[in-house]
Amino acid sequence: MPASVNVPINSRGKLASSLPAEQLAEIAELFEYRREGFSLDAPFYTEPAIFKIDMQAIFGQHWLFAASVAELPEPGDYVTVDYGPYSLIILRNDDGGVNVMHNVCRHRGARVLTQPAGSTGNMVCGYHAWTYSPNGDLIHASAPGETKFDKSCFGLKRAHGREYAGLIFVCIADEAPTDFDETAKVFEPYLVPHDLPKTKVAYQQNIIEEANWKLVMENNRECYHCDGHPELACSLFPTWGLTEGLIPQHLEAVWDRSKEAQAALEERCRRYGIPYEVFEELDTRVAGIRISRESLDGDGESFSADGHRLSKKLLGDLPDFRLGRCSMHLQPNSWFHFLGDHVITFAVFPINEHQTLVRTTWLVADDAVEGDDYDLDKLTYTWKQTNLQDKEFVELCQNGANSPAYEPGPYMKSEYQVEAFINWYVQRVQEHLA
C-alpha cells in the first residue's frame, strides 16, 4: 500500500489558452492517422501546440516518477520538480509520508521554494513573506490594513503523491488514474529486496538534451543503437531486446554467452526466492510497465568493465552480488536499474518542445563510505558516458525531425518497445482529446 495519499485541491493547472478549434482538429487528425510501426510525423517532435497537449494529456494526467526516498530521508526534506509549465514541491512530512504541492505562491504566483532540494520547516515565499506550513496551509500573510483576510482560502494547491518500495510518484490531475496501485503490486516484489529506504544518494546528474521528450523515451526503449555504448556493452549484453532469428552474425557469440548467464541467474533467483520473470504490459494498461531481472556480462554483478561490483556493500537483505540487474520501464517518464550493489533511477522532465531534462541518480547502501566502499568516479562512469552518448543520439534525431526532408521511418523488430511506448502515448492523448 502507498505510504501516503494527498488529496488535491483544484490541482490541475490551466494552461494559458486553449488551442484554436481548427488547429486542434488538425492535431487530432495527426493522432488518428498515425501509421503503426513507424516513427511519428515531425510535428509530434517540433510543434509547440503538440507539446502543450502533451503537458495536458500526459504530464497533467498521469503518474510520474519524481524522486526516491533517499532524496528525502528526514521530515522537512524536500525536492522541487519542474516540467513544462509546472513546478512541484515534494516534502517529507512528520508522519513519514510525502506532501506534494504546486510551487506557486497564492499571492502573486512567485516560486515559494527556489532550490532544487533542501530542508525546511515552514515554507516562506521570498517575495512578500507569505508563509505556508509543511502541508501547504497559509499561516502568515500579514499586511497593513488587512483585517478580513481569510488565510484558509489561500493554501498551496495540492497534488497526489504515492510512495512504493522507496520510489515517489506524483500526479497533478484532479482525479489520478486508479490503476497505478495495481501496477505497484507488480513491481514491489522485485524492488523490496533492494530496500531503497536504507540507501543514500551517491550522486545525481542533470543533463538537458536538446530534443523532444518523446525522442528521449524512444531512445531508451531499444538497444538497436547499443553498439554506440562501448562502456555499457562491457557489462550489458548488447543483444538486449533481440530474440532467436534476429541476432546479427557479429553478436552470435555474445548471444550464446548471454543465454548461459541468464540461465545461471534464474537458477540463483529461484534458490533465493527472488522474482525474475518478465512482466510486460507497456501499452495494455494505463500505467504501462515492463520489469524483469536480467543477467550482466563478466562477473554479472554491476555496470563495470568486468561486471564486478562497484560497491562493497550489498543492498538490503540481498544474499548475493551476482544478481544481474532488475530493469524496470514505466510509462511515461522513467526507467530504473536495481543491482546488488547500487540502484540507478532515471527521470525525464520535458522543458519545452525541443528540450528535455534527464535526471540520473545513483543510490548506494546508507552505510557505504565513499573512498572505502566505493569510488564515486568508477560507480558513475559507465552511465555518465552512456548518458552523454544518448544525448548525442537524440539530438541527431531532433535535428532530423526539424528538416523538411524528414518522414517517418519503420521500427525494426527489436524496437518493439518503442512502438509500445508510442502506442501508449497515442492512446492516452486520444482519450484526453475525446
From TrEMBL:
InterPro entries: Rieske_2Fe-2S, Rieske_2Fe-2S_sf, Ring_hydroxy_dOase_asu_C_dom, Rng_hydr_dOase-A. The keyword Iron-sulfur applies. Its cofactor is Fe cation. GO terms for molecular function: 2 iron, 2 sulfur cluster binding; iron ion binding; monooxygenase activity; oxidoreductase activity, acting on paired donors, with incorporation or reduction of molecular oxygen. Keywords: 2Fe-2S, Iron, Iron-sulfur, Metal-binding, Oxidoreductase. Pfam families: Rieske, Ring_hydroxyl_A. Gene3D superfamilies: Naphthalene 1,2-dioxygenase Alpha Subunit, Chain A, domain 1, Rieske [2Fe-2S] iron-sulphur domain. Residues 63-170 form the Rieske domain. CDD domains: RHO_alpha_C_GbcA-like, Rieske_RO_Alpha_N. PROSITE patterns: RIESKE. This is Rieske 2Fe-2S family protein.
